[in-house]
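Hi team, as promised in this morning's meeting, here are the two structures we talked about. I've kept the exact order from the run log so nobody has to guess. The first one is mostly here for context; it's the second one we should focus on when we meet again. Sequence first, then the predicted structure tokens.
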Amino acid sequence: MSGRDRVLGRVRRALADVPADGLAYEQAVDRGYAREHGERTAEETVDLLAENLADYRAIVHRCTEDEVAGLLMRLYAERGSRTVLVPPELPPHWPAAVGPVRIHDRAVSTPHELDRVDSVLTGCAVAIAETGTIVLDGSPDQGRRRITLVPDHHVCVVRVPGQVVASVPQALERLDPARPLTWISGPSATSDIELDRVEGVHGPRTLEVVLMSGA
């Protein structure tokens, strides 16, 4: 008897006393889980997102859609960024007409070329308040996964309140599991056995999140 036969035999024995009522798995198993912890207004949910992002050492900014270009220029100037990598279909009014040189992602771009870029600017698919998480799904305003992993400085614009949800279950309902999902909770960081934190090991050292209202 093979290992497969033994495993299937145990499964059959375990299910021997289960009535064959024909119920689908989704109906037979209770899925009445809490979808969020507590009740909040949309404004309170955005405030919770900002609080948890900051707790993960992301730098949080707030602005209106009319103010986003000026804010981005200030962030680049403060960092001294001379180049900014942009996805193929970033809203044209986000980057200002003047400022860092825009670098467009290309399939032929090498990791070394991406590493020389000072900053990267993207949108997001959804933001989760309870976990302080930004999710990217490779949409045209976010670009390919690698452009947000190689450059050392990532600026992510979140449209509030439309792209903000309270919990992970609510976020999963908006996401396509077939897309390349990247879940970001703060800048890239790791720690050794002595809990010495090192940032920028496998992603951006600095994450700045712009909560843009009025979009």
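And here is the second protein, the one for discussion:
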Amino acid sequence: MSAPTDDAGPDRNGSATTRELVYRFHTTFDGSFPEVPSTLGPNSYMLLCSIAQQPTKSGEPPVILDLGCGSGRLLQMLCDLGLPRENLHGVDFVPEQIARARQRLGDAAINLVCAQSQNLPFGSGSVDRIVIHMSLATMLPLERTLCEIDRVLTPDGKLAIIVDGQARPGTIDQMYAEIIYEVVADEQPDLSLHATGDKRVCDPIALTELTDRHTDLILQGEPKSFELLLKMNSRDYLSFLEGEYLWKLLSSSGRDRVRKAVMKLFEAYSNEPATIPLAMQLMVFEKRINAPKAE
């Protein structure tokens, strides 16, 4: 689901609010995305895996950190691709997510740690690849997270992220975003400003300026915009939406209001499955030790 854009990131109180919202949600819900095709071919997790598995310049298998690993789905895919399990690490700040990942992976060789993104339990220059799937915006304050990523990456290490993209006008994704943000703003205006985290993450220009200012990370090429192609009827789509944390902010009447509005979006499909494109972006940054920082 695409978020509105904004120039400024959350302040200190907003950071705490965002973390609390995400924490409360993930104590109960996994929150993973469906493994469905995208307009770039593989599903969104495999797009990150394709970058993470790239060998280092020495030819050795990379040491990989899945930051915000959730229930370990991406780590499981890396295992299935044949990456050495002792090279795989997962970090999440919600203990319940780490427990889900341990249950999924069932392998002591994979290092799973409950920790904050602003204080990573890894030595400087010890990780070759860091991947983040749809959670960087909530790793606040963002500047501190980026500095930690920069610290633990090796020279020529890579950061690959998937974040929200700009939904095409008239798509169900775009229309649903308008509905949910309107209802959240009506019911909890103080929370609506912080519900999606730091919106600069979804703006390649703003994110590049941040990395220039605070890190030695350089954007590789152009961001790749793509869509995740859900195919659902109204009932399945509502079930999918009920598993995301904005929904949990609403009262019963607010949820009913959203349900009715979503049902109207599907009237033209007579309860048949509709293709629902979810707009996303893939960005890859590479660390260069001698990269000049902006003044």
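Starting points for discussion:
Residues 12-168+196-232+277-287 form a domain with the Rossmann fold fold (CATH 3.40.50.150).
The longest helix spans residues 172-187.
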